[in-house]
Amino acid sequence: MSLAPNSCPALVLNADYQPLSYFPLSTWSWKDALKAVFLDRVNVVSEYNQIVRSPSIEFKLPSVVSLKDYIPLPEKAAFTRFNVFLRDKFICQYCTNTFKVEELTFDHVLPRSRGGTTMWENVVTCCRSCNTQKGNKTLQKLGLKLKKQPHIPSNYELKEIGRMFPPNFLHQSWNDFLYWDSELEP
């Protein structure tokens, strides 16, 4: 059975054979992966059985590539909405329920109207219902407690948390590099 090239993403590993990121998983389209191969920026570690052809040449699509040059992760994690959700494991810090990304927002623990700032230590993951209920009130006034105190995560911490959330698509050639709970062959 032949796969459509668009359903053949390539897992991108750093030069140390670790994924650049776990969540979202570091992947490239088949076109970007082949371009990197042609430009000699990556090593092909594993391939799909899928072949693409031009008039003069044919290639198996890469399923796993590793960068030739190591890219160090910055020490500090970027302060983004998604990284706040990831730090908090997609759990509303008020009702402690888990939600999908599109069902989440973030909340200022100390509301901006009361001098709170938009920074790691004052922003938490929140469901829409709890955010509406809290409004611009303080936790003390509402009698609410946070599941966990907000903090500045490292990129390493976010990477480790990301490993807890495997994506929907995992090609079997990726298993040796991702360390999710997958059965090992004898």
Provide a concise account of the structure shown.
The chain has about 190 residues and is α+β, with helices and mostly antiparallel strands.
Textual characterization of the structure:
The structure is a single chain. The chain is of the alpha+beta class and 186 residues long. The chain has 2 domains: 5-74 and 166-178, no CATH class; 81-153, DNA Binding (I), subunit A. The protein contains 6 helices and 6 strands; from the N terminus they run ββαββαββαααα. The strands form 2 sheets. The protein has a 4-stranded mixed sheet. The chain is elongated and about 70 Å long. It starts with 9 loop residues before the first strand and ends in an 8-residue tail after the last helix.
Kindly list the characteristics that best describe this protein.
four-stranded mixed beta sheet; 186 residues; elongated; two-stranded antiparallel sheet; 2 domains; single chain; alpha+beta; DNA Binding (I), subunit A; 6 strands
Radius of gyration: 21 Å
> Helix-strand pattern, N to C?
EEHEEHEEHHHH
Strand order of the largest sheet: 2-1-4-3
The proportion of residues forming helix, as a percent range, comes to: 10-25%
- Counted up, domains total 2
Structural class: alpha+beta
Q: List the uncertain runs.
A: none
Q: Mean pLDDT, rounded to whole units? A: 88
Largest β-sheet summary = 4 strands, mixed
User: What general outline do the C-alpha atoms trace?
Assistant: elongated
N→C terminal distance: 26 Å
Number of helices: 6
Strand tally is 6
**Into which percentage range does the β-strand content fall?**
15-25%
